[in-house]
Protein backbone atom coordinates (compact mmCIF):
# COMPACT_ATOMS: atom_id res chain seq x y z
CA UNK A 1 0.00 0.00 0.00
CA UNK A 2 1.37 3.40 -0.99
CA UNK A 3 0.11 4.97 2.27
CA UNK A 4 1.96 2.57 4.59
CA UNK A 5 4.58 5.09 5.71
CA UNK A 6 2.35 8.02 6.62
CA UNK A 7 2.79 7.75 10.38
CA UNK A 8 6.57 7.42 10.03
CA UNK A 9 6.93 10.46 7.77
CA UNK A 10 4.72 12.50 10.12
CA UNK A 11 7.24 11.77 12.89
CA UNK A 12 10.18 12.67 10.66
CA UNK A 13 8.61 15.86 9.26
CA UNK A 14 6.55 17.61 11.94
CA UNK A 15 3.63 19.57 10.51
CA UNK A 16 3.54 17.69 7.20
CA UNK A 17 0.09 17.40 5.68
CA UNK A 18 -1.10 13.97 4.53
CA UNK A 19 -4.04 13.99 2.12
CA UNK A 20 -6.37 11.05 1.66
CA UNK A 21 -9.82 10.27 0.37
CA UNK A 22 -12.61 10.67 2.91
CA UNK A 23 -13.95 7.21 2.04
CA UNK A 24 -10.58 5.45 2.26
CA UNK A 25 -9.70 5.58 5.98
CA UNK A 26 -6.08 6.47 5.18
CA UNK A 27 -3.83 5.94 8.19
CA UNK A 28 -2.11 9.14 9.28
CA UNK A 29 -4.34 11.34 7.15
CA UNK A 30 -4.47 14.97 8.25
CA UNK A 31 -6.63 16.31 5.42
CA UNK A 32 -9.53 14.35 3.96
CA UNK A 33 -10.58 15.16 0.41
CA UNK A 34 -13.77 14.51 -1.52
CA UNK A 35 -14.34 14.08 -5.25
CA UNK A 36 -13.94 17.48 -6.89
CA UNK A 37 -11.92 19.10 -4.10
CA UNK A 38 -9.21 21.47 -5.29
CA UNK A 39 -5.90 21.61 -3.44
CA UNK A 40 -3.15 24.18 -4.02
CA UNK A 41 0.43 23.25 -3.20
CA UNK A 42 2.38 26.45 -3.35
CA UNK A 43 1.83 28.88 -6.19
CA UNK A 44 2.27 26.56 -9.15
CA UNK A 45 0.83 23.16 -8.28
CA UNK A 46 -2.92 22.61 -8.23
CA UNK A 47 -4.52 19.21 -7.64
CA UNK A 48 -8.08 18.16 -8.39
CA UNK A 49 -9.29 15.14 -6.40
CA UNK A 50 -11.06 12.36 -8.31
CA UNK A 51 -12.85 9.46 -6.64
CA UNK A 52 -12.01 6.27 -8.51
CA UNK A 53 -13.91 3.23 -7.23
Notes on the structure:
This protein has about 55 residues and is an alpha+beta fold. The protein has one domain (about 5-50). Helices cover about 15% and strands about 25% of the residues. It has 1 helix and 4 strands. The protein has one helix spanning about 5-10, and strands at about 20, 30-35, 40, 45-50. The strands form 2 sheets. It has a two-stranded parallel sheet with strand order 1-2. A two-stranded antiparallel sheet has the order 3-4. A hairpin with a 3-residue loop joins β3 (about 40) and β4. It is flat, with a radius of gyration of 12 Å. About 0% of the residues are buried. The model has no long low-confidence stretch (mean pLDDT about 90).
Tell me the layout of helices and strands.
Layout: H1 6-12, E1 19-21, E2 31-33, E3 38-41, E4 45-48
Parallel strand pairs: 1-2
Antiparallel strand pairs: 3-4
How far the N terminus sits from the C terminus, by CA atoms, comes to: 16 Å
Summarize the biggest pleated sheet.
2 strands, parallel
Helicity, in percent? 10-25%
**Count of helical stretches:** 1
Low-confidence stretches: none
Protein name: Metallo-beta-lactamase domain-containing protein
InterPro entries: RibonucZ/Hydroxyglut_hydro (IPR036866)
GO molecular function, one term: hydroxyacylglutathione hydrolase activity
